[in-house]
Structures are given as C-alpha cells and as structure tokens.
C-alpha cells in the first residue's frame, strides 16, 4: 500500500475574527492588496469580499482583482477589496462548509460547489446564474517533462512503463487531480474497446508509478519544478505553461492524444453574501470575468478564455486541436464522483486506501 505524501499549508479559519486562509502548497496566502485577513462588508466606504479558489489560480486572480477593483471604483466611485484564499479545490469546499466566510467560490469542479449548495450555503440553480454553466474559463490536462524529454514520454501509455516516476496530486483533495484521473481513464477505455476492467488495470498501473501525491495541484508543481522530483508532472495546462515560461531551458510540455475539457466553476456563496451585504458586488465580480478585458487576462495567465475570438488569439499558447473528452462522457459530475472518488469507489480500490 502506498502512503500519500502531502504538502500541507495553512488552515482556513472558521470565524471572521481569526480569518486565515487555507493553502495546500508551500505558498502562503495571497490578496490583491497584500492583506491576509478579511474585513467583509462595508467599512468606511470600502467593501471587502473573499474569493475562495483552488490552488493554481493565485496569479490569475491577483491580476484579475486589480482589474476589477479599478473597474469597480470607476463605475461606482467606491472601493472594493478582494481577498484571495487558495488550496486544493475539495479542501477549499470543505472549508467553506465548515465556516470560511467566502463571498464567492471559484473552484476546480462543479461537484465541489454542489457540496456547498447541499450544505445550504449556495442557492439551488447556481450553475445557471452565470453564462456557460457558470464556467468563465476552461483548461485541460497535459504532461510537464524535463527539457529534451529524456524519458520519451509522449502519451498516457508511457506513464505505465516501469521506472517512470509520476508526480500527481490527490483526487481526494485536489480538483485538478480528478480531471487528471478521468482523462487517463477515458484514454484507457478508448484504447481497450470500452472494457472497464482493462481500463481499471491500466489506471492502476499508472497510479503505481505515482511517487509523490500532494494535496493540491500547486504543491505537485512545486514538488516537480522546484524540488526536482519525478520524471513527469500530470498538470493543469496553465501550471505547465507558467512553468515553461519561468524555466524555458528546463521544462517542456507534452500534450497527450486524449485529454479532457476541464471546466472550473464559479458561484456566489449566498448565505455569506447575504449576511455580509455583499450580494451585489459578488455578482458583479463574477459577471466581470466574462468581459473582454478579463478574458484577455485569463488567456495571458494560461487559462482558455470562453470567448472564442479571444481564445483564437492565444492559439500560439494552447493546442486547440487536442481531442478533449467531457464530463458528460462520465454521466456528469455527480455520477463521476460517486463512481470514482467517493470513499470506497474506484480510486480507493486502485490506490489501496
């Protein structure tokens, strides 16, 4: 039985007085203003809202929050401050359920937001509140390898070879890891004529090669890029793009033959926003993600804009020809989570939990 190695970060406080936000990587908390505590609500004309997000979106929301705060001041004549919280998506969802005073959530999976809805904190029908199933940007899953690709890793098949060391986050706490798992499962199904037993055997071999399983995607990137462990990182596309941009002589991206259309979701945490008097600004904050200015920032930070024209303008950054399966191929997130990621489901079976 493998033992997961997890990089643990700060813990989200359950009360406003001790607000301290979770992170599952080695990085600390981030806010657009540098503040580490939330003063949610009206305070001397300034409104503060808290965005609880998943691991790799730190840099995206730092840039976006600056843009939104400027826009809001110009439009309304008053200031808004956005405080960010980052960690593994599943862990972040649980922190909101347990009391984190989030006004909005911008998480890796629709399922994570559904859990918050089921806890009575988000109104039903949230997925239809914003355009495109409340998914203002998308991503996919790729491989990050060392420059020159010394292990000649070209597709999912290569990840089950003897001696390949994989860095991959934990689906129990990381939304990105769930997308990783599903992409590999779809490849294995297609390769084996939809034989689920053979797909399970394939993915079991793949996870037997996982040498470090961090609790979040950013922690996994740190393990591979900064700590030098492993031969390949199964990664969010934006994490891989940013790593290559920062270390162009050390890493390169391999796009597998089949990946998945990852659709991070956004929602207002209605119970908190109502209590804090931030419902209107929270809605405006998420709506603004769909504007042209915001979509350009999204593309610049390695996420795929949902605006098709803006997406095309980043064709030099993204492989727009990759074959992408969708969550609907798995019956939607509720069905996929029950089958693969619930306690005792397929992931637990293959990983020996």
Short note summarizing the structure:
The chain has 14 helices and 14 strands. It is of the alpha/beta class and 353 residues long.
Mean pLDDT level: 89
The value of Rg in angstroms is 20 Å
CATH class of the largest domain: Alpha Beta
What's the N-to-C terminus distance?
8 Å
The strand count comes to: 14
Residue fraction in strands: 15-25%
Structural class: alpha/beta
> How can the largest sheet be summarized?
5 strands, mixed
Helix and strand element order = EEHEHEHHEEEHHEHEHEEEHHHEHEHH
Overall morphology: globular
Poorly predicted sequence stretches spanning 5 or more consecutive residues: 1-43
What's the arrangement of secondary structure elements?
Elements: E1 41-43, E2 46-54, H1 58-76, E3 80-87, H2 89-97, E4 104-107, H3 110-118, H4 131-134, E5 137-138, E6 141-146, E7 166-167, H5 175-191, H6 196-208, E8 210-212, H7 217-226, E9 232-236, H8 237-246, E10 251-254, E11 258-260, E12 265-268, H9 270-276, H10 279-287, H11 292-300, E13 304-305, H12 308-312, E14 323-325, H13 333-341, H14 346-351
Parallel strand pairs: 2-3, 2-4, 7-8, 7-9, 11-14
Antiparallel strand pairs: 1-2, 4-12, 5-13, 6-9, 6-10
